[in-house]
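Q: Predict the bound structure with flavin-adenine dinucleotide.
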Amino acid sequence: MYPARFEYHAPTSVDEALALLERYGDEGKVLAGGQSLIPLMKLRFASPGALVDVNRIQGLDTLEEGPEGLTIGPLVRHRDCERSQTLRGRYGVLADAAPQISDPIVRNLGTVAGSLAHADPQGDWGSALLAAGAEVEATGPSGTRTIGLDDLFQGPFTTSLEPTELVTAVRVPDPGPRAGGTYLKLERKVGDFATVGVAVHVSFANGTVGRAGIALTAVGPRSIRATAAEEALAGATLDDDTIRHAAELAAQAAEPRSDHRGTADYKRSVVRVFTERGLRKAAAAAREEER
Ligand SMILES: Cc1cc2nc3c(=O)[nH]c(=O)nc-3n(C[C@H](O)[C@H](O)[C@H](O)COP(=O)(O)OP(=O)(O)OC[C@H]3O[C@@H](n4cnc5c(N)ncnc54)[C@H](O)[C@@H]3O)c2cc1C
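A: Predicted complex:
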C-alpha cells in the first residue's frame, strides 16, 4: 500500500526544522532513518500531513565521549554504534545492543534517537539506554529540556515528547573508571525483534557495585527498568547469592504476555537467566577494563 498524501520538507538547520514542526503541530512528523515511520505510513497506521526530514542538517551525527559521558546526536545510526570503538568496554551494554538490531539495511539507516522517539517496547535501544541511565535532550519552541528515559517512555509507542520537539541529543552519563555491561537478546532468528532482551550496566567502586542498571525489552508495555534488582545490587559485592537474588527480582519486574514468541512463564524465566548471565559478564568486563 502507498502512504496517504503528505507534504515533504528537508530543512538544512535545526531552527528551520523546529519552525516547520511548530507550523504543522500534530500533523507534522520528524523523519530520521524512516525505518519505523515509513512502514507505518505504508500500512496507513500513521498518516502525517507533513514530514520534516532532518537528514540534510549538518552536525547531527556526532558520537563522542566527553568528561560527562557520551553524546549521541540525533542522526547517529545503529551502524555507527556497531562500529564505534568508544562504545566498547565501559559502555559495553550499548556496543553489544547495536549489532543485534535487525539487519544491515535497517542498521545503516535507523537512528538511536528515532528508536527512542518511536518507543517500541520491543526496541533494543530503549532498555540498553535505560540501563545506562541515559537522558534525551529535546528542543522545541520554548527551548531545550532534558528528559530521563523513565519519563520519556509513557507506554507502547508513546513518549512525553511534544509534536513540536526534536530530540537533539541522547546523553549517557560517564559510568566511572570501572564499569561493564552487556545486552542479551533472545530472537527467533537473526534480525527478528526480541522475544526477550536484558540490558545490564554496572559501575564498581571500592570492590562493590556503585550503580547498577538493569532494563528489559519486550516483556511489558514499555521498556522496563528492574528497579528492585538495581537497588539490591547497589553497594553489594557481586557474589553468586547477590547475582541470583537480583536476577529473581528482575524476573519479578517483567510483565510478559504469552504470544507467538513464547509463553509468559518462559519469557520470565529467560529474564532471570539473562540477568544472571549479564551480571557475570559485566563483572568480568569491568575486571578486564581495570587491567
Ligand atoms: C525490518 C525491521 C526490523 C527491525 N528490527 C528491529 C530490532 O530488532 N530492534 C530494534 O530495536 N529496532 C528494530 N527496528 C526498528 C529500527 O530500529 C528503527 O530504525 C527505529 O525504530 C527508528 O529509527 P529511525 O531513525 O528509522 O526513525 P524514523 O522511522 O524516522 O522515526 C520513528 C519515529 O521517531 C520520530 N523521530 C525520529 N527522530 C526523531 C527526533 N530526532 N526527534 C523527535 N522525533 C523523532 C519520528 O517522527 C517517528 O515518530 C526494525 C525495523 C525494521 C524496518
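A: The pocket of flavin-adenine dinucleotide is lined by residues 29-37, 39, 74, 101-102, 106, 110-111, 113-115, 117-118, 120, 123-125, 161, 166-167, 193 (CB under 6 Å).
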